[in-house]
Amino acid sequence: MAAKDLQAAIREVPDFPKPGILFLDILPLLKDPALLKQLTQSLASYAQDIQSVVGIEARGFILGSAMAIELGKGFVPLRKKGKLPGAVHSQSYGLEYGTDEIEVQDGVLNPGERIMLVDDVLATGGTLIAGVKLLQKCGVVIESVVVALEIGFLNGRELFEKQFPDIPLHALIVK
Questions:
Q1: I need a surface site. Which of 66, 88, 91, 166 has the fewest CB within 10 A?
Q2: Which phi and psi (to 5°) does residue 168 adopt?
Q3: Above 80 in pLDDT, residue 98?
Q4: How far is the C-alpha of 28 from the C-alpha of 5, rounded, in Å?
Q5: Distance (Å, rounded) from C-alpha 140 to C-alpha 138?
């Protein structure tokens, strides 16, 4: 099974979540056990010397949890605003169709801890950039960032690499 099998399973949904947006749906990848295993192992292969996998809500939770199990590491979620109890660190960001905010519980990550950040899709870069900024507030070392799918024409990689030239960014599939 190759990356082309992963790419072939991605479903295109026009006009979602609003008119003019072409949503690339990775859920068919997640439903197929062989493709999910390949996806998880391929993403996990980018890990070097990490202590935890951090995933961005919501599909980053699915991929990140599976990767953490594959790697024998812990998993930490970056949640949308208002979903976590207690003190949190937060970071707002722009989407291709609005704005949002993500949070992580204070104290769940330790300064100097080496992590890998994972999300499902790199589009405009806003979510990943916010994730890195949020993690930097926690004082962790971001060893690398991985995504299953990169939407190349939205230029999120260029924006990410301009702000974080020293953080490796890996995408399995580029459309």
A1: 166
A2: -65, 135
A3: no
A4: 11
A5: 6
- Single out the residue of 45, 61, 47, 11 nearest to residue 37, CA to CA: 45
Q: What share of the chain is helix, strand, coil (3-state, %, to 5)?
A: 35, 35, 30
**Tokens encoding 100:** 């949002």
Tell me what percent of the residues of the chain surpass a pLDDT of 90. 86
Residues marked as catalytic: 59, 96
Selection from 171, 141, 175, 174 nearest residue 43 by Cα: 171
154, 34, 117, 120 alpha-carbon torsion, rounded to 10°: 30
Q: Which CATH architecture group holds 48-174?
A: 3-Layer(aba) Sandwich (3.40)
With a cut of 80, say whether residue 30 has pLDDT above it: yes
Q: What is the pTM of this model?
A: 0.93
pLDDT of residue 147 exceeding 80: yes
Q: How far apart are CA 19 and CA 96, in angstroms?
A: 12
Domain boundaries, the chain: 48-174
